[in-house]
Write a structure and sequence with these properties.
Layout lengths: L3 E10 L2 E11 L4 E5 L6 H9 L6 E6 L2 E4 L12 E4 L11 H6 L6 H14 L16 H13 L5 E5 L7 H18 L2 E6 L2 H7 L2 E6 L2 E6 L1 H6 L4 H6 L4 E8 L2 E4 L2 E4 L7 E7 L4 E5 L9 E12 L2 E8 L13 E7 L9 E6 L4 E3 L2
Parallel strand pairs: 3-8, 3-9, 6-7, 7-8
Antiparallel strand pairs: 1-2, 1-4, 4-5, 9-10, 11-12, 11-14, 12-13, 14-20, 15-19, 16-17, 16-19, 17-18
Pfam families: ABC_tran (PF00005)
Keywords: ATP-binding, Cell inner membrane, Cell membrane, Hydrolase, Ion transport, Iron, Iron transport, Membrane, Nucleotide-binding, Translocase, Transport
GO molecular function, one term: ATP hydrolysis activity
Length: 357
């Protein structure tokens, strides 16, 4: 198995940089998700790796072999890299079996055996091979596109937002299925997406792109809990960022006291909390108000099994926090959702993440 190395790659279109000094290492057999807003350079990155575009500066190597640099490039058809586009791009005039077998060498019987293996690998019945692309659901079409890409036994699979056109429930099941297929086949994979949940759940590694530059890369959990900056924090999910004063392992903020990491230096900061870290209890229960605060429920947004209630904090408008009123959203179980006007105790669990000025 092979490691993909991208070294300071830039790609310009006129005066605009679609990708600028981008570097990333993708370990052999791993799954990496690249996430970023539209126009951040995600698809350009995939096209450079696949060989559909060429870098203006920098170098791309795979298994120690240079795929492309500033002076030369291996053609796309010789890279043995699979590519699954957003819409699947199946040939409408070919059957499912013919789509999968497209480009395969060997006798008809050998091709059919390989097609049957691939259909089974992507959890489709062999009888599906006789159908035409327009007779398939969106999820089935994406499975066929994946089988076609796997037919060439690629060393690396590139997935360009392949689930974006599917319904939300199908997206989740397809993502899990594709991830399992690639893992079972031992194929290194890169998925680009603008969907944060998809990016966080797909891979062993997550890379965040912004305006053509790599902002941060690492384990998904690390990026979610310890993002490089506030913009990344909000891009990767709902976030609460509060002004704070740090001292002796604690941050004092409008929420009261919140733990910070060991060894954090004293001083002003802004702290990050994720919604799942906030908790409510009725104000009448015993509580240590130093490790939280009291407030009043002033809003409620019912969302089925989960509700988001808005709590107006008591005495949080002191000059240290800029004055004014503080209202915080808190997710609660629908069964435990407090009524409007209820007095509650609000506190945070776990550690907060610091952003220094």
């Amino acid at each position: 198995m092979s490691t993909l190395e991208i070294h300071a790659v830039s790609r310009y279109f006129g005066a605009s940089a679609a990708l600028e000094t981008f570097s990333l290492s993708v370990p052999a057999g791993s799954r990496t998700a690249v996430v970023g807003p539209s126009g951040s350079g995600k698809t350009t990155l995939l096209r450079l790796i696949a060989g559909f575009e060429f870098p203006d500066t920098g170098r791309i190597t795979f298994d120690g072999v240079t795929l492309a640099d500033e002076t030369s490039a291996i053609p796309a058809h010789r890279r043995v890299i699979g590519y699954v586009p957003q819409d699947g791009a199946l040939f409408p005039h070919l059957s499912v079996a013919a789509n999968i077998a497209f480009g395969l060498d060997g006798h008809a019987a050998e091709k059919q055996r390989r097609v049957d293996q691939l259909l089974e690998m992507v959890s489709l019945d062999r009888d599906m091979g006789r159908r035409w692309p327009h007779e398939l659901s969106g999820g089935q079409q994406q499975r066929v596109a994946l089988a076609r890409a796997l037919a060439q036994s690629p060393r690396l699979m590139l997935l360009d937002e392949p689930f974006s056109a599917l319904d939300s429930g199908l997206r989740v099941s397809m993502r899990k299925a594709v991830s399992q297929v690639l893992s079972d086949a031992g194929v290194t994979a890169i998925l680009v997406t603008h969907d944060q949940e998809e990016a966080l759940s797909f891979g062993d590694q997550l890379a965040v792109l912004r305006q053509g530059r790599l902002v941060q890369a690492g384990a998904p959990k690390d990026l979610y809990l310890r993002p490089a900056d506030e913009e990344t924090a909000f891009f990767l999910g709902d976030a609460l960022v509060l002004p704070a004063s740090v001292e002796a392992g604690w941050a004092r903020c409008p929420l009261g006291r919140v733990r910070v990491g060991e060894g954090e230096s004293a001083g002003r900061a802004r702290i990050l909390l994720r919604p799942e870290q906030l908790h409510l209890s009725p104000a009448g229960l015993p509580a240590n108000s130093a490790d939280g605060c009291f407030g009043t429920v002033v809003g409620s947004d019912f969302g089925g099994n989960k509700c988001t209630v808005t709590v107006r904090l008591d005495d949080a408008g002191e000059a240290d926090w800029g004055g004014g009123e503080w209202r915080l959203p808190v997710r609660v179980s629908a069964l435990d959702s407090p009524d409007l006007g209820s007095r509650v105790h609000l506190f945070a669990s776990g550690q907060s993440h610091l952003f220094r000025p």
